[in-house]
C-alpha cells in the first residue's frame, strides 16, 4: 500500500498538479486526499469521465503541462471518444496521466457489473493504443513507474494509464464533507417514497447504494422485486431506461430513482424526456450533493437548481422536498398531474455500514422485471 500523501507528493515532483475525474471506490482515499488538499480549480470533479479528458486537455493547452484524469475503469467507456478523437497522437496529441481504478480485476471477487469491464480493461487500453502500467505497491517502485510514464508522455505526447488495484492506497477518510443538515437519509427517503407507490408502479433505480437500499427495503417489507429494475452499472442511464419503458407501457407509472451524481453524469437525457413527454414518467432525484456510494466526494449539485433544470427541459411538474410530510404531499401532487414530473428530495449523506448487495443476478432481475411487464 502507498500513502495518498506520498503519491501526491510524487506526482507534484513530476509537475503533475492538475486533476479531473469522477470518483471511484478503489481510488476513494486518494480522491478524498485530493479533495481536501488541492484547490477546486485544480481538482475538478467532473460530470463524467469524457468531460475530465476535455478539462485536462484545456489545462495542457494553456500551461503546456500534462494533468491527471482519475476514473473507475467503467468510466473508460465514457471517454473513448475524446481519447481517440482529441487526445490521441494522430489528432491533437495531448499528454495526460490516466489513473484508473481496476474494478473486476481477473481473479478478484467483484460484482457482476464489474467482471466484464475488469477483464477487458487491459484490452481496451491496448486497442486504444494507450500504454499502461499497474501502480506498484511501494513508493520506490511507483517512482520508477511514474518516471517511465512521464518520459513516455514527454516523448510521445499522448495519454499514459496507471491501473490501480484494490487496496493500493492507505485509507484516508474525506475531511471536507460539506455537511448538510436535512432530516432524512437516502434509505429513509426511499422507504417513504415506496409507501406512496402502487404495487404495479415500475421503478428503475440508479447505480450504487440507491439500488442496494431499494433491494433491501423490498426484502424487509416483503414486497418482492418484480417491478424494480436495478441499474447496477451504466451510471447515469437509469432515466433513459425508464424513458424507454414509459413510452411503451403508457398504462404503468414509471419512476426513475436517481442520484445527483448520476443525474448530472448524463443530464442530456432530460432533453429526450422533455421532448417525448411521457405522461407516466416520474423522476425522483435523491440529492445528497455527493457521490456517496464511492466515498462521499462532492458533486456539482450545490450550484444546481434540479427542479428548474427539469422544468426548462420540458417536464410538467417539478418540485423539491426535504421532510416526510413534504415528500408525501408532493408525490401526491405529481401523481395527480400529467407528467413527466420530477421530485428532488434533498437528503443527508450517509448509509448503513452493513448494507448488503442484491441477492439476485442482473439476469434474474431482468427476467422477473420483464415478466412483470408481461414481456415474457
Ligand atoms: C461510468 C461510471 N463512473 C463511475 C462509477 C463509480 N460510481 C458508482 S456509484 C457512484 C456515485 C453515484 O453518485 P450519486 O448518483 O450521487 O449517488 P449516491 O451514491 O450519492 O447515492 C460512482 C461515481 C460508475 N459506476 N460508472
Descriptive report:
The protein is α/β, with parallel strands linked by helices and 376 residues long. The protein has two domains: 4-164, Rossmann fold, CATH 3.40.50.970; 186-372, Thiamin diphosphate (ThDP)-binding fold, Pyr/PP domains (Rossmann fold, 3-Layer(aba) Sandwich). Helix content is 42%, strand content 16%. It has helices spanning 4-13, 28-37, 49-63, 76-87, 112-127, 139-156, 186-195, 209-220, 238-248, 260-265, 269-276, 306-312, 324-335, 362-372, and strands at residues 19-21, 43-45, 67-72, 96-101, 132-134, 160-164, 202-205, 228-230, 254-259, 281-287, 290-291, 297-298, 317-321, 341-346. The strands form three sheets. A six-stranded parallel beta sheet has the order 2-1-3-4-6-5, sandwiched between helices. A six-stranded parallel beta sheet has the order 8-7-9-10-14-13, sandwiched between helices. A two-stranded antiparallel ribbon has the order 11-12. Helix 6 (139-156) links the parallel strand 5 (132-134) and strand 6 (160-164). Helix 3 packs parallel to helix 4 (76-87) and helix 9 (238-248) runs parallel beside helix 11 (269-276). The longest helix has 18 residues, at 139-156. It is elongated. The model has no long low-confidence stretch (mean pLDDT 96). It binds thiamine diphosphate (TPP).
